[in-house]
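Input structure tokens:
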């Protein structure tokens, strides 16, 4: 199951995941193979959205639409990164959202017995409220990451334009 809280491997001290894919913090692909990275992230994101849709009856109101909002930001961003690439830091953030933060938030909630979803916890908020807050933060984080990637590339274009302008524009000093 995709949203398992602990894998059997984690329970018996083994590293990795029981589905053959690396776990959080493990490098799942060659660092320079952006297409492979994007393919894994697209597959994982699709599985998360499909699982959220399937679990929609157990999730609090607003959870599934927020997961879809996150998907609406990240899916085009993944396509863009596949064509244009991204920095290692941007890829780490993107991977963390898709492979750790989003599945953990959903998995932790769905692992709870339904009777506990509306019961206030130690913070005074319910797990349902905590999930919605976590998903909104992830949505904001996805939007910030999108801005970071697109702005960074736009800045590179502006720098190149200034360079070309300086290189090829005739100066007043050129007689």
């Amino acid at each position: 199951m995709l949203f398992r809280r602990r894998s059997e491997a984690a329970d018996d001290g083994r590293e990795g995941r029981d589905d053959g894919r690396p776990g959080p913090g493990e490098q799942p692909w060659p660092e320079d193979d952006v297409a492979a990275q994007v393919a894994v992230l697209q597959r994982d994101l699709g599985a998360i959205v499909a699982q959220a849709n399937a679990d929609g009856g157990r999730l609090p109101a607003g959870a599934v639409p927020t997961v879809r909002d996150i998907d609406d930001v990240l899916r085009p961003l993944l396509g863009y990164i596949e064509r244009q690439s991204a920095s290692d830091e941007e890829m780490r953030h993107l991977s963390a959202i898709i492979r750790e933060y989003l599945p953990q938030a959903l998995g932790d909630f769905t692992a709870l017995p339904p009777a506990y979803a509306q019961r206030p916890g130690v913070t005074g908020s319910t797990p349902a409220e905590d999930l919605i807050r976590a998903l909104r933060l992830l949505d904001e984080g996805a939007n910030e990451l999108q801005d970071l990637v697109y702005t960074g590339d736009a800045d590179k274009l502006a720098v190149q334009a200034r360079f070309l302008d300086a290189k090829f524009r005739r100066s007043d000093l050129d007689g």
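Residues 127-168 form the longest helix (42 residues). Residues 1-21 have pLDDT under 50 and may be disordered.
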